[in-house]
Design goal:
homodimer; alpha/beta; Aspartate Aminotransferase, domain 1; 2 domains; 10 helices; 17% strand
């Protein structure tokens, strides 16, 4: 049976990328060696790194004064590395859920943290807006997509201070104005790569603001100055990331991915809104294109397990909602085909008929 | 032409492991999903993690009071995490080359560092022995195998203070007495896995000695208490690591790997010592089984490029010595078949005949 992969992360990657990755594991570029067994200091891998960086610049229209680096340790490591590098006296954070909270917790070790806005009052079902941004902050930190709750910023914030954004789960899903950010980072295991590589896009002037004496591996300059090759980088995940970017370019770039993502999300949200058995969990204007959360509607809560079983029987994978929200979460990342969303919608409609 | 992979790292992995990895990339465990697209919080991946930890315990006879964790960021990240966690007032380091030096540099941020012994006087061509170990150290740090210079400790040190060892390039290559170590760590991209995962084996009592308030991701307890699942671990590299451990077990375990490594190294060192065109670069008693360094003998220096070209023409890959040593380095990790060493020896002998 065909599987429909709605995993929240690590998550679905394009089939052709997976096939290329399997080939490269067996024989990389016809070298007679596995991609897993080559030195990272070779022309062939330099080319992969250059391609990953070049395509990132091209696809997101990243200006030349931004450096792109690839690291290990996940976004969770960035939660402390961001303030370690950039929090001199005071930073502002917006609290939109678990990942924001974790970032706030780590930042407090390095200086004063002002939580400028939070949606905790309604279990993070919306994105706070219209909050004031003090001008004396070292930076403002936001989480652009909240994987657990299914909320997402749909606009790039205007800010008088540098904006640093965790885009782990919506990078490359929609056009963004990179110039409005001082730094963008994220674990790559949703839209870009398998688990094991973290990306960071850093405006060069920020690198001159690193005031602390930091461990070599924590200092972003170590990596920007060595093209992510100060130490052995995660070769295979970076290769897959480069292949994913190639796939995205061939498809028509971020605009086309965004068009597809809107199309998929609209299909599913429309069904959630129409189908009397279900209801969405977030404010409509802040609905995520990536992580679509829904629960059984009032009075139908008892059908949750039955729906989950039914969906599984139809090949749906990874639909269980996070325990903090409950219900269901359909993660619809770039590589998820429209057919999978259509299959889920059909499943919801069939389930509705069964329970009339 | 068959390639003989002498890469220093990332380096050769067993062919059956590579084939299993390629299969898992296409379809993991017959799930219909790629290993790259599954959640790390699934029974199937739990089983991989359990297997990796279980086999590690079994193969190296690691007592139950040691925790095994898998991290990102490479050994370079451990260079600061070790002292961040364990350096309270003073630590001892042995300087056996570049990697030791890097570890020493990071440790100095956290306390007093005493370099108890160094082989810098002879470009790190030997392992210092018989040095005194003060009893007031928080720990003693050693680098058991020095990839660049081709030196290796052949005995587990007796120490009155906890020993912490970087075993990046010789883990699993020889039996060790784990009980003599408080912690063993390393990048896994030589004997265990592709680049992107770091292993750490930590005696439990050490975890009670963490005195600093550390960033969550830097504190080893975060990872020991969450079975390396506090955040998304590098799924694919951990899978390959588990497969490599399975391969090692099926082969007969560490004893058998050691027997093979001694056999391979003896073959090559014997030829280096016999062949008048070449000479070894390190003290014989400290020669590494993993990284075999040699140069052209006196008067034959001019033949270096010609030998490199000749070796390449015979399918040898990764033979170039590190720039700090020059000449040649044949890395003979666990997965390197004896046939590759035999091919190199034949190549050296043929080259000798050509230049008589």
């Amino acid at each position: 049976m065909k599987k429909h992969n709605f995993n929240a992360g690590p998550s679905i990657l394009p089939q052709e990328v997976i096939e290329n990755a399997a080939k490269a594991v067996l024989d990389f570029n016809g070298s007679g060696l596995s991609l897993l067994s080559i030195s990272h200091r070779t022309k062939d891998f330099d080319a992969v790194m250059d391609q990953a960086i070049g395509l990132f610049h091209e696809l997101l229209d990243i200006p030349e004064n931004y450096k792109i680096i690839f690291l290990g340790g996940g976004a969770s490591t960035q939660f402390f590395e961001v303030p370690a590098n950039f929090l001199n006296t005071k930073a502002g954070y917006v609290n939109t859920g678990v990942w924001s909270k974790k970032a706030i917790k780590e930042a407090k070790r390095y200086g004063q943290v002002e939580v400028l806005a939070t949606s905790e009052d309604k279990n993070f079902t919306y994105i706070p807006k219209g909050f004031a941004i003090p001008t004396d902050l070292d930076y403002l930190h936001i989480t652009t997509n909240n994987t657990i709750y299914g909320t997402e910023y749909h606009e790039d914030i205007d800010s008088p201070v540098p904006v640093i954004a965790d885009m782990s789960s919506d990078i490359l899903s929609r056009p963004i104005d990179v110039k409005k950010y001082a730094m963008i980072y994220g674990g790559a295991q949703k839209n870009l790569a398998p688990a094991g590589v973290t990306f960071a896009i850093i405006r060069e002037d920020m690198l001159d603001k690193i005031v602390r004496d930091l461990p070599t591996m924590v200092n972003y300059k170590t990596h920007t100055e060595n093209n992510s090759m100060f130490n052995t980088p995660p070769v295979f995940p970076i290769y897959v990331l480069a292949e994913t970017l190639k796939w995205a370019k061939n498809l028509g770039g971020v605009k086309e991915l965004y068009r597809r993502n809107v199309e998929k999300a609209t299909l599913l949200y429309d069904e959630i809104d129409r189908n009397p058995l279900f209801r969405g969990t977030t404010a409509k204007e802040d609905r995520s294109l990536m992580n679509i959360c829904f629960v059984m509607s009032e009075g139908n809560e008892g059908l949750a397990d039955a729906f989950m079983e039914f969906a599984k029987s139809k090949g749906m994978v990874g639909l269980k909602g996070h325990r903090l929200v409950g219900g269901f979460r359909a993660s619809c990342y770039n590589a998820l085909p429209k057919e999978s969303v259509e299959a889920l919608v059909a499943c919801m409609q069939e389930f509705e008929k069964m329970h009339k």
